[in-house]
TrEMBL record:
The gene is purA. This is Adenylosuccinate synthetase. NCBIfam families: PRK01117.1, purA. Substrate binds at residues 298-304. Pathway: Purine metabolism; AMP biosynthesis via de novo pathway; AMP from IMP: step 1/2. It comes from Methanolobus profundi.
Amino acid sequence: MFTIITGAQFGDEGKGKIVDLMSGEYDLVVRFQGGNNAGHTVKVGEDVYKLHLIPSGFLLDSRVLIGPGTVVDPGVLAEEIDMLAEGGIELDAKRVGVDAKASVIMPYHIELDGLREAMRTEKIGTTKRGIGFAYIDKVARDEIRMADLTNKERFLNRLEEIAPSKEAAIKELGGDPSIVRDEALIDKYVKLGERFASYITDVSYEVNKAIDEGKNVLAEGAQGTHLDVIHGTQKFVTSSCTIAGSACANIGVGPTRVDNVLAIVKAYITRVGEGPLPTELFDDVGKQIQEVGGEVGTTTGRSRRCGWFDLPLLKKAIYLNGYTSIALTKIDVLSNLDPVRVCVAYELDGQIIDYPPEDTSALARCKPVYEDLPGWDDDLTGVKEFADLPQAAQDYITYLEEKMGVSVEYVSVGPAREQTFKK
């Protein structure tokens, strides 16, 4: 069985905890795009793990893979493995594999990212971790791959070939080009290459072979649908394709092999950084959702902007991903709010529309049209099954199901593994 999981909003929907919950049923868990600009927090008992590259499936003994469509900062990967080792979790090459074709994020990518964002009049909210510039090099065929990094001679030759253009680009943006050939940084990367040599694998082959053998594979996306570089709210997007179809391309699996596509959907909506968010709340309700929901970015540390559930954006996400089921997270955060509002359409320049406009500036002008539902006062964090939710919360979930046209399979009422149940 091959299942793809993607976020249906702007990221931060709770993918990490759902992957953690489901990974006990899967032999392989594969990250298919993005880099350490993503982040997920997984809570198991009293232990909290904040991860940026490694899929959370290792907690239930799945083999976890980082696919060729990702961009890898090997220093961050090493830090995560070392952090987990301190907690008693050893991730050797039997537990983790990194594709030979995955692009390496180099120090000059990070430098260029920061310099370029500083020069923008209209900021896009990049995490300044070099992700976009690593993807630029992938497309331009100027990348250094993980296979290059693990071969010292090949790595140094490749770097020497690329260095002049990177030095010129940094100098043009007003930065210090010496970072490109900094001996200490180069030595650090050589050592990282030696460390990860045994982790290198062919992810496409591993995944297809596992499917052939009747094993279960879970593909995990980073960020969210509306941050997709093609279909998202350009220019306020990430640097990769975040939708389900890109899992096939970025891992190397044919689309006919996909069995399930699961959406992770927050019971409200959040966004980090810049870009339109039609239902954004600037009042005490927005503050309450932010505080109760702990809406602070795992990677950036920035507060997330919060708003009511946005059905037009969800409808587009369903079309883009072809979801077969939904995991609805953080419904507990909506307790003690009455009414609970759902955006069912937009007013744009005097017209009512029920689907997001293509143009980002038009989306920014959209005013939400709401339907109000009764709220509830109960604390949901101890609820173990759907029938034990207060009637108003059950009605809210049923209402969303009917509007989305896709069934809710999982409901989450808190950050811990045991706080998610099947509907």
